[in-house]
């Protein structure tokens, strides 16, 4: 790796880290008096289920990018509260279907989309119009390059067609793989091209 590429990689990682830190701080302030935070732990599960009230447990774990054990602990807590129910799949008795209850739907706080967009947009106020245009072009090039590297048969392609596009106006807040940090114990190492959604995980 050349010195320039190494510097770009270092600066980019620092940017993601700083953005993640600032965003999590903002969300902690916003939801500090709430029982459920849609950006971590049980709240992330409920927020996703609110978009798709019925989903296979395996798929839920993949979308959240958490280990089987961590997901089971979260689901146990949510089930005790009456927020979800687990049923054996009729197609595969070894698998479980997770369903959101009315109580779980009511417990999920509404997200403030306008606040979220305003916060992100403010990050670019330090740039001129020309600099913003240039940055936009550069980011588009990088995004297209990453998309071209993804195999059409990749697992994420399946979910994008079946799930993300169905909820394109809802999922942008919950799914934040860009700034997420993921533990090394994830059970989804085989899907290394896709690192999951949401912020730093807190299993509570």
TrEMBL record:
Record's keyword terms, sorted: DNA-binding, Transcription, Transcription regulation
InterPro entries: HTH_MarR-typ, Tscrpt_reg_MarR-type_CS, WH-like_DNA-bd_sf, WH_DNA-bd_sf
Single GO term (MF): DNA binding
Pfam families (UniProt xref): MarR (PF01047)
PROSITE patterns: HTH_MARR_1, HTH_MARR_2
Domain HTH marR-type: 5-144
Designated name of the protein: Transcriptional regulator
Species annotation: Methanobrevibacter arboriphilus JCM 13429 = DSM 1125
């Amino acid at each position: 790796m050349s010195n320039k590429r190494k510097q770009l990689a270092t600066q980019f990682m620092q940017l993601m880290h700083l953005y993640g830190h600032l965003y999590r701080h903002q969300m902690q302030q916003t939801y500090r008096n709430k029982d459920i935070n849609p950006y971590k732990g049980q709240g992330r599960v409920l927020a996703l289920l609110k978009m798709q009230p019925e989903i296979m447990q395996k798929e839920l774990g993949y979308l959240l990018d958490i280990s089987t054990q961590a997901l089971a602990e979260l689901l146990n807590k949510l089930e005790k509260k009456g927020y979800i129910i687990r049923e054996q799949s009729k197609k595969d008795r070894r698998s479980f279907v997770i369903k959101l209850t009315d109580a779980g739907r009511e417990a999920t706080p509404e997200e403030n989309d306008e606040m979220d967009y305003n916060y992100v947009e403010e990050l670019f106020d330090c740039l001129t119009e020309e600099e913003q245009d240039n940055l936009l072009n550069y980011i588009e090039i990088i995004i297209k390059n990453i998309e071209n590297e993804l195999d059409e048969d990749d697992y994420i392609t399946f979910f994008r067609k079946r799930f993300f596009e169905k909820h394109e106006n809802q999922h942008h807040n919950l799914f934040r793989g860009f700034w997420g940090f993921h533990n090394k114990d994830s059970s989804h190492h085989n899907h290394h091209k896709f690192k999951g959604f949401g912020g730093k995980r807190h299993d509570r």
